[in-house]
Amino acid sequence: RFPVEGLMFARESLSRLDAADQPLSRAWALRTVINLEIYAGAFEAAQERLREAMRIAQDGGDERLSIDLLFLQGDFAIRQHDWAHARKCYTEALERSRTINRRSTIGNCLHHLGIIALQEADFVSAELLLTESCSILREHQDVANLGVPVRILGHLAIARGDLDVAAGHIGESLSLNLQIMDRRGIAACLAAYAAIILAQGNLTLATT
């Protein structure tokens, strides 16, 4: 419900910003709408707005906005299962974020590059990318974005049989998700705990 309502308000806000008089303000508003449209699956609308926002950002020389839009292009590509283009977008966003030392964005780019590595079954690279991502996101106390990569590290630890490490990661992720009341994240962590208990051979506890 929230993304749908958020998208309605964001579109209303966007309609009040004139491209000629307030181009960069409009581009930042476009960024918000695009993010919500990708989340909602409105890909055609998101793609059209991305093109407009990129033009404004480039003309206005707003590097932070350009990086954010590159990141959103990567998100769009992932939803379309275009892993090669997603990697290209996140890699460029990562390099440009490193140039201006935009640490939180660096952490998020590493997270998404880790997901792509997982998709390609490159588990060693995935763990390295996700570990670096978590380190940076912890440094910035980015609770909203840290829970998922930590949980993925937990699943990787389960897969290699390192259950104590897995439990530590899942516990951290659960705590983060409880802080922001992310119900999907909480449910995913509880399912991961069940997987750990099953791997320990306790079927009764896992199903309670």
Structural class: mainly alpha
* Rg from Cα: 19 Å
> Helix tally?
11
Report the helical percentage.
Answer: over 70%
**Sequence of secondary-structure elements:** HHHHHHHHHHH
Outline: elongated
Distance between the termini: 30 Å
Low-confidence stretches: none
Q: SSE layout and pairings?
A:
Elements: H1 2-15, H2 23-40, H3 43-60, H4 63-79, H5 83-99, H6 103-119, H7 123-139, H8 143-159, H9 163-180, H10 183-199, H11 203-206
Which characteristics define this entry?
single chain; 208 residues; mainly alpha; 11 helices; 84% helix; 0% strand; elongated
Explain how this protein is built.
The chain is mainly α and 208 residues long. 84% of the residues lie in helices and 0% in strands. It has helices spanning 2-15, 23-40, 43-60, 63-79, 83-99, 103-119, 123-139, 143-159, 163-180, 183-199, 203-206. The chain is elongated, with a radius of gyration of 19 Å.
